[in-house]
Amino acid sequence: MATLASTGSTIGGRLRLVDGVRRQVDYWVVVYQRTWRGTVISSFLAPLFYVLAMGVLLGGFIDADPDVLEGATSYFDFVVPGLIAAHAMQTAVGETTYPVMAMIKWQRIYDSMLATPLACRDLVAAHLSFVLFRLATTCAVYNLVLAPFGVYGSWWGPILAFASQLLVGMTFAVWVYGFSARLHSEEGYGVLFRLGIFPLFLFSGAFFPISNLGTVGEWIARCTPLWHGVNLSRMFALDNVTWWVAAVNVAYLSVLTVVGWFWAVSGLEKRLVS
Amino acid sequence: MISARGLRKSFGDFEAVKGIDVEVRRGEAFGFLGPNGAGKSSTMRMIAAVSPISGGELRILGMDPAVDGPAIRGRLGVCPQEDTLDVELNVRDNLYIYGRYFGLPKVEVNERVDELLDFVQLTEKATSKVEDLSGGMKRRLTIARSLINRPDILLLDEPTTGLDPQARHLVWDRLFRLKQSGVTLVLTTHYMDEAEQLSDRLVVMDKGVIVAEGSPLDLIRQHSTREVAELRFGVAEVGESHDAVAEKVADLGDRVEVLPDRLLVYSDDGDHVIAQVHERGLSPVATLVRRSTLEDVFLRLTGRTLVD
Asked: CB neighbours of B51 closer than 8 A, spacing ≥ 6?
């Protein structure tokens, strides 16, 4: 008999979060086995096309002045760390929009999971762990491929840049997950992509220094989570770190991620446990 | 096994379950019979420890679902109204992965999957994709999935809705075997034949309340006659409604129900009723004498048919 008591894994009637996630590992492994081929193009090839087009070809027309390009000695060096952070956002958004809608509404996999000892927060934690895995693999490959091009200013820089890419990715993952949990029709994603993700992608400092946006525009950009991720990724990659700014960036994204976690869990609970 | 006192469920201003008392004992098959919207599924979701109760008391396996939800769910099997199988996985993986959610070791789940595939007669389909299965096979797979943790109580919400007759009988056969092996079954249905086939005891629900309780036979004895004479008249004779004809035959049975297309005369001797109808110069285009069913009980108690 599968009782919880026999596994000794409960706290106050609930499963321990780590145990709840562990029980879903097989499911997510199967999901990855059936979807990884499709992710190769979006995760690895598309970003490299961006690097080639923006960094190499467009960058060839741009004069590299480290004072203007936030310490970068070429446009390639400037744009690549920002692109990886922006790509982390896109990967996270991709994994927490339609896949979440499918689990809730189209295939109702979450309903079947909730008939077992698992609870909403276990489902959210496992889903977000999978997102973290996707972020880690994509960003790691991206960083490794670019290592030979001399972007990185130190050996530890890319490691901290990688960590900040994961952090900004997870910030978007928790918030978009919470949005998806509350969304009843997929038409809402059109608004999210056009009015949220796409403008962030263009204007959060990945492609040009935000000082070009004017005083107001610059401050708006500084409030966006993606800018904090882009800034961290770039500072660490180029070894041009202003530590107090880095601390503010990390704190901002961390607080947003923690608050977003509660927003995601409460969204799923409101939707499925009524 | 399950004990509810004054159990309520509200969604905003709407009260789906309005204070019901239910007691389910070990090893019995207990049914909730009622039309769509009677509050059966809301009750089942509370019993499944998924939906929090709005009022009253509920104990499942001696535990409070608000406190011990995961522990209760670990000992329940749930077969939902709509199949929630993963259509992109094969049959075997659907069972295996579900078993892992209960924290069962891999070896044990694998053994259990083999047993269950055999039990629901899907061994040959083990590597087929779920989307390639027929409706009846999917239902059997869902039942197998709900048994993966060897549950103490199996909850079945409308287990055969949408299945063709042959598939229904196959599902009933499997459920009957489970019942005989001592599993406590709790099912909802709006099919009276299903309730009669599978339930030892049942409650009839309507608009969120229980209107009757007992074994199928007791309910029929208490609330209906032994037989029913069904009379269908041509349009020329009845015009727009059967009401006028109903008055002419009202004294032939204990009572008469007027349905849109026919009259039901409740009597212990249906053949006698039909003979009397003809003697009175009435000429129904079709007649039928049958035994009373739970459908008649429901009609008596609520004034409505089960499937509107």
From this structure: A273, A274, B9, B42, B45
The answer to whether the beta carbons of residues B228 and B292 sit under 8 Å apart is yes
- Test mutation, B54, B84, B130, chain A, max A CBs within 10 A: B84
Domains annotated on chain B, with CATH: 2-214 (3.40.50.300), 225-291 (3.30.70.270)
Residue A270 corresponds to which amino acid? K
Closest of B81, B65, B72 to residue B143, by C-alpha: B81
Query: What's the rounded Cα separation, in Å, for the pair B276 and B287?
Result: 13
What is chain A's Cα-based Rg?
20
What would the mean pLDDT of B226-242 be, rounded to a whole number? 77
User: Which whole number is the average pLDDT over B220-231?
Assistant: 88
Number of neighbours of residue B214 by Cβ within 10 angstroms: 16
pLDDT at A47 over 90: no
Spatial separation of the C-alpha atoms in residues B107 and B207, rounded to whole Å:
47
Q: Which of A3, A19, A30 sits opposite B74 (nearest CB)?
A: A3
pTM over 0.80: yes
Task: Say how many C-beta atoms besides its own lie within 10 A of residue A209's C-beta.
Answer: 16
Q: Count of CB contacts below 8 A, A vs B?
A: 94
Nearest to A81 by CA among A253, A274, A265, A238: A238
**Residue B288 burial (CB < 10 Å; 0-12/13-18/19+)?**
middle
* Separation CA A142–CA A82 (nearest Å): 12
Contact A109 B84 (CB under 8 A): yes
Sort out which chain B residues have CB atoms less than 8 A from A107's CB and list them. 84, 86-87
Question: A78 with A69: CB under 8 angstroms?
Answer: yes
Cα Rg of chain B (Å, integer):
23
% pLDDT > 90, chain A: 62
Question: How many CB atoms within 10 Å of residue B233?
Answer: 20
Cα separation, B131 vs B74, in Å, equals 28
Report how far residue A74's alpha carbon sits from residue A227's, in angstroms, rounded to the nearest whole number: 20
Chain A residues in contact with B68 (beta carbon < 8 A):
13
C-alpha distances (whole Å) from B244 to each of A63, B241, B265 are: 97, 7, 14
- Distance in angstroms (rounded) separating the CA atoms of residues B175 and B149: 16
Confidence at residue A3, expressed as pLDDT on a 0 to 100 scale: 45
User: In A, what residues contact B, Cβ < 8 A?
Assistant: 1-5, 7, 9-10, 13-15, 19, 23-27, 30, 34, 107-109, 111-119, 273-274
CB contact under 8 A, B88 and A34: yes
